[in-house]
Amino acid sequence: MSKMPITIEALLVIDAIDRRQSFAKAAEEMNKATSALSYIMQKLEENLGITLFERQGRRSVLTAAGKVVLEEGRQILQASSQLVEKARETSTGWETHLKIAIESTGNYKVFFTVLQDFLKEHPSIEVEVTECVLSGGWDALEHNQIDLVVGAPGPIPLLKGFRSVPMAKAEMVPVIAAHHEYAEFAEDGKSMLAVLSKIRRIVIPDTSKLNVTRSAGLTNGYQKLYVQNMDQKMAALRAGLGVGHLPRKRIVEDLANGTLLELKLDPANDLESFLAWKISNKGKALRALTQLLEQADWSDG
C-alpha cells in the first residue's frame, strides 16, 4: 500500500487552524511551534498539489479545496477517535455493541431514561433496540439474537440458561372506543360478554420465530386485526376498529377524557414481566446496563 498523503496529525492541524483562525493560536492549542504547523501544512499542500489556506489580513482562511479536506477530515478524526475508544473497551472486556429487545407492553419512558444515563458514561457503545411480543423476546435471547430483553412476560422458560429479575407488573386493561357500536355495553360486563364474540380483536402477534407462539388477552373472537406494535394497536383501538388490552399507564389520558372506555370484565389481567439475559454473557457493558435497569423504578410513568 502506497503512503497516504494525509495523516491524522495533518487533519488535527487543519481543524485547529480553522477553529482558532490563525496558525499561532492553533500552535498554542496543540503545544507546538508555529513553524512546525506551517511545515506540516506546506508538506500536505505539496503532496496533494493544492492550496489549503489563504491569508485574509491576519486570518488564515480555508480555500474551497481546504474546506473539503476539513469537512471530510473531521469525519475521519471522529471515526479514528471512536476506533481507539472501541479498541480500548474491547481489550478490557467491554462490548462495543448491545442488542436489546423491549416487550411491547414495556415502560419505554423509564427504559430510555436509564439508557440515557448509561450512554453518558459509555458514549462509544452502540445500542440497537427492537420490539418483541410475548415469546419473541425469550426466543431471540435463547438464539443469541439479542443480549438483553426488557419486560419479557412470565413464565420464565426453564433450562435455557437465563438470568432474570422481576420488574413491575403491567396492568392490562380491556378497552373499546367510545364511538364503537358496542361501546354502550362497556359498563355492563354481562351484556358485553354476550356481544364480545361479535367484536373484532386488535392483536399484536407473538414475534417468536422458532418456539411455540403464545397469545394473551381477548384473543378469541369473530375476527382479528393484526398490528405490528403497541402504538399501532392503540391507534386502531382509538379508531374504533375493535377491542383489546392496553397497559393502563399508556392510556390514562384516554380513559380520563372518555376516548377509550374500560370494559368491566373479570378477571383482571396483570402481566408479570422480567429483565433477562444469558448467564453465559459476561460482558461488562451488559452488566453495567442491567445494574442500572435493576435499580430503576419501573412503576413510574
From TrEMBL:
Q: Which Gene3D superfamilies match?
A: 3.40.190.290, Winged helix-like DNA-binding domain superfamily/Winged helix DNA-binding domain (1.10.10.10)
Q: What are the HTH lysR-type domain coordinates in residue numbering? A: 6-63
One Pfam family, short name: HTH_1
Give the family from UniProt.
Answer: Belongs to the LysR transcriptional regulatory family.
- Alphabetized InterPro entries for the sequence: LysR_HTH_N (IPR000847), LysR_subst-bd (IPR005119), WH-like_DNA-bd_sf (IPR036388), WH_DNA-bd_sf (IPR036390)
Q: To which species is this protein native?
A: Thalassomonas actiniarum
* UniProt keyword list: DNA-binding, Transcription, Transcription regulation
The molecular function terms of the Gene Ontology recorded here are: DNA-binding transcription factor activity; transcription cis-regulatory region binding
Q: Which SUPFAM superfamilies match?
A: Periplasmic binding protein-like II, Winged helix' DNA-binding domain
Under what name is this protein listed? LysR family transcriptional regulator
